[in-house]
What does this fold into?
Amino acid sequence: MSRRRAVATTAAVSALTTLAALGATAPAHAAGEAYVALGDSYSSGTGTRDYIADGTSCLRSVSAYPSLIASARGYALTFRACSGATVADVTSTQLPALSSTTRYVSISIGGNDAGFADVLTECAQPGWMSDCNGAIDGAQAFVDGTLPGRLATLYSGIRSKAPNAKVTVVGYPRIFDGEDCNALTWFSPDEESRLNAMADRINTVTAQRAAAAGFSFANPTSRFVGHAVCDSPEWLNGLSNPIENSYHPNKAGHASGYTPTVSPLLTGATVRATRTVRAAAAASADRLAADQRRYASVDRTIRPERFVLPDLHSPEALAAARRVGVDVDDRASVDAADRRASARQAAEHRAAVTAR
It folds into this structure.
């Protein structure tokens, strides 16, 4: 067994042992129907820049749609969604929060399994030093071939542990609007189109698996139209500081995008993120943080999936620049070579599609 696998196995065993010690049900609340929010960064609230102090890197926010919905409806929220979570992470660290008393469940998952952060990282680089099409092709093959089975197994586990819950599976918005207004990234229009199509494909597969499990599917695509990265107003962050906020919904995205998309399916009524609702959500921060500190040790086993800023002075970038005659300290040289490479790659992709 490799050292990496041994460490991962030890961490998983430790996580399961800790969960067993905590018990298999969510923390008790004084009132309100039990709502458990599962999933990844698009459910935890990464991108809102307003995170509860729960001792983890999950980046959970009271500005995220689970908190807003729970606050508006008076639900007792157990906030297990965590930045970086994969299907395996949800299974091992989040499902134990479910029980026969759980009334509502929401979940977004699949993007990290498909390596979407890594794909974005590859595609953000200038075309002369990246293989964006190859990265997207690999992710799409995973989404079509492997993800459906993983989701089917996960959804079966959710239904088994929460047999009386109303479950809403939540999709991903299209991130881009066809232009790149960030000075330190090089997404071409063709690359943005393919990345948006990848989000659509994940949604299609997820919706199919959700329907097969008897769950509803909340598709945010139409509501986010006109609010992508570089739109005005943006509901999705572009390149951000700190970097982990990049390419995630901001507070407006959760309040005006996700909340009215998810709430009718989950609760039977549309929730509006009014000032009163936002204040109630903010007031729940200490309680949510205390609840999730119980799980901090297992949450720390989840590896964050983060976008990485292009580095034109890395050894790999400098080697690629020498091959194509680019001066990495001359922006005009970098951009001109990027346009040529991106146009060539787009033509190659169209030819490959035509040949299939």
Observations:
- The CA atoms of residues 127 and 342 lie 5 Å apart.
- Residues 1-30 have pLDDT under 50 and may be disordered.
- The two ends are 41 Å apart (CA to CA).
